[in-house]
Write a structure and sequence with these properties.
single chain, 332 residues, four-stranded antiparallel β-sheet, 2 helices, 25 strands, 51% strand, globular
Length: 332
């Protein structure tokens, strides 16, 4: 009887799979009085008794959500489906400033990516993949330029020009060896908006792994010059999250948990570690959106439910020129 009962329970569990869903944000771009957010919703199936996380991904959906920011009379939050597909594939969509097309980024393996232009009206790609083989790629803040490898040569491509054929080459900087380092992790690469600099920031998960040889900010210019800042080890709790060229100088954005983890101290620094601007925001915020032209940094507030990650409707806006911090909520 015990054997029959075990067999019956096993058969029941085998035919009863778990289904789950999660939703994450692929990309956010702030422009023209609105936020353009690309949301990726994924569905999974797993056995009733499962020891391997969410299970197997069976379906993905992407949607473009436009949110007036801040709230504006007569303008509502809109959601538009972009694409549905089955299977477990690594895809990502990015908005492009000043363009109605999107970047469709593919990551077939851990060593690199390719991108195509995607038409959200037809739901189809309209260009062939670039570069010709998966390589490490870095987009600028507006996604109008992409730094990648073509063969053994680093190239900066005009992404929008790919709609008419081969994307235009804006520059051929001497950065091939630098891009090759991105395959090994622990670095965040940033192509500045003027496409003149490539900045490498340390991304080290645990302070015990930080040493004087890897806790460094490096800046490479198109003319071959190299600059760096060896960060003092006593700043090992500070996270260096962004960089940009402002008036020809590289500025760094950092975050540091303070007030027993309740708040973040955010700073804009020079390449010598000098603090130019400093403010304090809530700690429960997501990746920042830096707008150098507006002298502002926007931090989406992390809102979670028991099932999925909710699309942020609350934001913290830091105007560093006036050192003013605002909490802004959008209507649901």
């Amino acid at each position: 009887m015990e054997l029959l009962a075990a067999t019956a329970i096993g058969s029941l569990l085998a035919g009863c799979n778990q289904h789950s869903t999660d939703e994450t944000v692929d990309d956010t771009l702030r422009l023209n009085g609105e936020l353009r957010v690309i949301v990726n919703r994924r569905q999974y199936v797993a056995p009733a008794v499962n020891f391997q996380g969410s299970g197997t991904m069976t379906k993905q959906e992407w949607a473009l959500v436009t949110m007036p920011f801040p709230d504006q009379p007569g303008r509502l939050i809109k959601r538009r489906e972009l694409l549905r597909m089955g299977g477990n594939y690594e895809h990502k969509f990015l908005s492009i400033e000043g363009c109605d097309l999107l970047i469709h980024q593919l990551s077939p393996d851990a060593t690199g990516e390719q991108f195509m232009l995607f038409d959200p009206t037809t739901g189809k790609d309209i260009s062939r993949p670039f570069p010709s083989a998966p390589e490490p790629s870095v987009f600028d803040r507006s996604r109008t330029a992409c730094l990648t490898l073509e063969g053994k040569q680093a190239v900066i491509l005009d992404t929008r020009s790919a709609r008419t054929g081969e994307p235009s080459v804006l520059a051929r900087p001497p950065w091939a060896a630098v891009l090759g380092r991105l395959k090994y992790g622990r670095l965040k690469a940033i192509l500045t908006e003027d496409t003149q600099y490539l900045v490498l920031l340390p991304q080290i998960a645990f302070t015990s792994f930080i040493t004087s040889s890897n806790f460094i900010v490096e800046v490479f210019s198109t003319n071959g010059n190299v600059d760096h800042w060896s960060i003092p080890l006593e700043r090992n709790r500070e996270k260096f999250v962004d960089a940009e060229s402002v008036d020809g100088k590289i500025l760094l954005l950092s975050r540091l948990l303070v007030d027993n983890g309740a708040r973040d101290e955010v700073k804009l620094l020079t390449m010598q570690g000098e603090t130019l601007y400093s403010g304090r925001i809530q700690a429960s915020t997501l990746d920042s959106l830096w707008s150098p032209r507006q002298q502002e940094v926007l931090f989406p507030y992390c809102e979670t439910s028991s099932s999925v990650l909710e699309l942020p409707r609350t934001f913290v806006l830091w105007n560093y020129a006036s050192n003013k911090v605002q909490r802004i909520s959008l209507r649901r």
